[in-house]
Amino acid sequence: MAQKRNNKHAPEWLQKLKMNALVMVAAAYIGILRLTCRIEVVAGQKQLDTVLTRGVVVPCTWHQQIISSALFLRPLMRRGFKTGFLISPSREGAFITRVAKMHGTQVMRGSSSRTGSEALRATIRAIKQGVSPTMYADGPRGPAQQLKSGTIILAQRTQTPIMAIGTAASRYWQLNSWDKNRIPKPFARLTVAVGELRLIERGEQQLDAVARQVGHSIDELTALAEAAQQKPRA
């Protein structure tokens, strides 16, 4: 108990030092993954090509796939695709923000559960600037794999199509967290399935039903990506 109290009340400079060290380690690990992981689009290449020529979309997937989806989206920036990530204003979010910025990605701060209007305004501004805001639509606290309405409202209000994504990794660690987050291991093979673009019409009223449909699409795409891991490569 004494050790826990000492850690909790550690000097501020020591806490900052530890945080800086953790950020550097995490950023270096993501860099290793970017260099060693092989990414293969197993479904939806035509949709993806359309996105790269069209411009702005709302990429959408589950919180469990936050790292693998980011590894897929980040290289697309070399082809002119501007991607950003909505990250909660929590302590964990601040950590992720610093790591993401070290890899050159734009970050919008906000949470569907704590600062919903702030998050909506931030993502709308990003879209107007030509940024495609990636939404982890069951975050930041879950329930896991239940799509919240914020993503649908954003897509409808800005008339920006949703691009559902499912990813899988051949080798990963799985955390004992609410989202069962999967952290790919170096030299993993990442498979990605991209869905048809989904535009939410302005007059659409059944947004809960739309959210369930998009969530179902993410599940199906994830199943496709996982199934591709089982197939022998040519």
Question: What is the element layout, followed by pairings?
Answer:
Elements: H1 2-8, H2 12-36, E1 38-43, H3 45-54, E2 58-61, H4 66-73, E3 83-87, H5 91-102, E4 106-109, H6 116-128, E5 132-136, H7 149-158, E6 162-169, E7 172-174, E8 182-184, E9 189-194, H8 207-230
Helix pairs in contact: 2-5, 7-8
General description of the model:
The protein has 234 residues and is α/β, with parallel strands linked by helices. Helix content is 47%, strand content 19%. It has a single domain, classed as 3-Layer(aba) Sandwich (Glycerol-3-phosphate (1)-acyltransferase), CATH 3.40.1130. Strand 7 (172-174) and strand 8 form a beta hairpin. The relative contact order is 0.18. The model is unreliable at 1-5 (pLDDT under 50).
- Largest sheet composition: 7 strands, mixed
Q: Identify the CATH architecture.
A: 3-Layer(aba) Sandwich
Task: Name the structural class.
Answer: alpha/beta
Give the class-level CATH name.
Answer: Alpha Beta
Give the averaged pLDDT, no decimals.
86
What would a concise description of this structure say?
47% of the residues lie in helices and 19% in strands. It is built from 8 helices and 9 strands.
Keywords:
234 residues; 47% helix; globular; disordered N terminus; seven-stranded mixed sheet; alpha/beta; 8 helices; Glycerol-3-phosphate (1)-acyltransferase
